[in-house]
Design brief:
Elements lengths: L1 H30 L1 E9 L10 E4 L5 E3 L5 E7 L2 E8 L6 E7 L4 E3 L2 E3 L9 E8 L10 E4 L4 E4 L5 E5 L3 E8 L6 E7 L4 E3 L2 E3 L7 E9 L10 E4 L4 E4 L5 E6 L2 E8 L6 E7 L4 E3 L2 E3 L19
Parallel strand pairs: 1-7, 1-8, 9-15, 9-16, 17-23, 17-24
Antiparallel strand pairs: 1-4, 2-3, 2-5, 5-6, 9-12, 10-11, 10-13, 13-14, 17-20, 18-19, 18-21, 21-22
């Protein structure tokens, strides 16, 4: 009898211990929660498909669908660090608390990574007389031996490393033209060309009007061919062009705030001659300065 009683006591103890353990395991399963959410573009609020979302503590990883949606099932209650990342975006991290048996939504708004634009030279090529765009003109960066062509609007663009360059524009029926340009890092420099048509039954005088200081272009300067009473004005980049008869001409240039300049120019029929002008400003400093801007002692 004692042996039977002992067996009964042992059976009761086993049942008493086993039942709570089984119930405890069930309670853990019933207490598991979920983490769900969406991943968006922070600027456009558009969903991001294929973004990677992961839980740091568990190492679980999933991907967003075409709607930017993700989910993690069977997450034990606790505090988690959840991160999201996608190509072209900065990663984002959030702390998520999952209560027992609940679903927690955690959305992410990823900031796009700003990719620096490459350095470039761009602009337009025009007919110097008519100011109409020239399509199919070749643009060559001499130092790189790289050539591109203008589109139907006369526009071109060429990407280059930062540096100093000589750029040449050529088109059939026009004189070629070169300009120097400095291209800083991650910047686009505008460089327009006005190509001079090759004359046949006339002569052409053209060139640039600039300030003698810093070689800055002068916009709107008056260019007068005195002997033919012809007047043109320089453009924004200081460029001017005028058709004349063959022979010797007196050309005078003046602009507001500058001393005038006069040159004698000889040009023949069928010839285009470049004549540049540098004007001296009227505003002179009240006392002389050295090159490094310190007053000269009296």
């Amino acid at each position: 009898m004692r042996r039977i009683a002992l067996l009964l006591i042992m059976l009761i103890l086993v049942l008493t211990i086993a039942i709570p353990v089984e119930l405890s395991a069930s309670s853990i399963r019933w207490g598991e929660g979920r983490i769900i959410g969406y991943v968006y573009d922070a600027e456009t609020s558009e969903p991001i498909a294929g973004a990677i979302v992961g839980i740091v503590q568990t190492g679980d990883v999933t991907y967003t669908d075409e709607n930017g949606y993700y989910e993690f099932d069977d997450v034990e209650p606790g505090v988690y660090i959840v991160g999201a990342v996608a190509d072209g975006y900065k990663p984002s991290v959030a702390t998520v608390t999952v209560p027992p048996g609940q679903t927690v939504q955690q959305d992410f708004y990823l900031e796009p990574i700003e990719v620096p634009q490459p350095s470039a030279i761009e602009g337009y090529v025009y007919d110097a007389l008519t100011e109409e765009p020239i399509a199919g003109a070749s643009i060559t960066v001499v130092e790189l031996n790289e050539t591109t062509y203008t589109d139907e609007k006369g526009y071109y663009r060429v990407e280059v490393p930062p540096g100093n360059y000589t750029v040449e524009a050529c088109a059939r029926g026009y004189l070629s033209q070169q300009q120097n340009v400095i291209v800083p890092p991650f910047e686009t420099v505008e460089l327009d060309f006005y190509l001079v048509p090759i004359p046949s039954d006339t002569a052409i005088i053209y060139g640039y009007v600039r300030s003698v200081f810093m070689n800055q272009p002068i916009n709107g300067a008056y260019v007068i061919v005195l002997d033919e009473l012809k007047l043109v004005r320089s453009r924004e980049n200081g460029f001017y062009i005028v058709e004349v008869d063959g022979g010797i001409h007196i050309v005078i240039v003046f602009a507001q705030g500058y001393l005038p300049s006069i040159k004698i120019v000889e040009v023949e029929i069928g010839e285009a001659k470049q004549v540049d002008f540098q004007l001296i400003p009227l505003n002179i400093p009240p006392y002389p300065y050295r090159y490094h801007q310190e007053p000269i002692p009296k």
